[in-house]
Amino acid sequence: MGVTKSDLFSKTQNELAAIAKVLAHPARVAILQYLLKSNTCINGHLVEELGLAQATISQHLKELKNSGIIQGTIEGVSVSYCINPGRWEEIKGIFNTLFESYPTPDPNCGPNC
Amino acid sequence: MGVTKSDLFSKTQNELAAIAKVLAHPARVAILQYLLKSNTCINGHLVEELGLAQATISQHLKELKNSGIIQGTIEGVSVSYCINPGRWEEIKGIFNTLFESYPTPDPNCGPNC
DNA sequence: TTATTATATTGCAATATTACGATTAATCAT
DNA sequence: ATGATTAATCGTAATATTGCAATATAATAA
C-alpha cells in the first residue's frame, strides 16, 4: 500500500520515526551540517553548496522547518535559517534515550558479565 | 524523479541518512524497543505484538538486518533476532557526533553568552 | 517420506518521496 | 511604479516504500 499504519504504534515510536525520516536524506543532513558550521544560511548559498535546484532545496528546508529542527527569519529579500536550539536538544534527547537503553559493552568485563 | 542524488554528498552524509532511514518507520522502532526489553525475539512474536502481517514484519526485520543493527541466528525452526552490540555502538556514535557538534545552551549564561 | 511449523520471497496495488521547471509572491533599489 | 533578486509553491514525472496474499524454502516431528 505505501501507507504506514501509525495507529498500531505508540506516540514515542511514531515521533522517533518521524524525526528519523527528516534526517533520512543526505541533502537534509548536509544542510544541518552546513548550519552547524556556519550558524546561518540562506537558500541561495545551499543551492551553490549542494548542487540541487532551488526548488528542491526549498522543499528540504521546509521539511526541516516543519519538524522544528531549524527556523527561518526573513532577512531583507532572503530568508536566514538557523538551528532551533531547544528543539535540537529535544531531538538529541529522544535519540539518546533510545541508544542509552542498551547497555554499552564493558571491555574490562569477563565472559560472565 | 524520486531518486536521491547520493553522489552530491559525502560518505558520512549518505551513511547517516541511510541509518536514519532504517529508523524512519515506527514498526522498526517498535521492533528495536522490543529487542531492547526482551533481548531476543522471533518473527512470530512480533506479528502478534505489532499486529502487522508476517510478510511485513519479515521485510522490516530484513531492513534492520541489512543495516547491521540486528542479527539473526537460526534456532531450530525459527530465527532468533538480537541487537548487534558493536554496530549499535557505532550508530550511537554517528548520531552523537552529529548532535554533539552543536553547543548545548548553558542556562547559567547571560544574554551576551 | 510426509506433515507441520516458521520464516523468506515474490508479485502487486496504494501511497510517499525526490527532483525540477515554471510560476507566484515578496522585498528592495532605482 | 518598474525592474531585479530571492524564496515559496504548483504541477508533474520518476522512483521508492509499505503492506499483504500467495507461494517458496527450510527445519523438525511423526
Automatic annotation (TrEMBL), chains A, B:
Keyword Cell membrane recorded: no
Annotated keywords: DNA-binding, Transcription, Transcription regulation
Pfam families from the UniProt entry: HTH_5
Occurrences of domain HTH arsR-type (ranges): 8-106
SMART domains assigned: HTH_ARSR
PROSITE patterns with a match to the protein in the record: HTH_ARSR_2
Name of the protein in its database record: Winged helix-turn-helix transcriptional regulator
Natural source organism: Cyclobacterium plantarum
Lineage of the species this protein comes from: Bacteria, Pseudomonadati, Bacteroidota, Cytophagia, Cytophagales
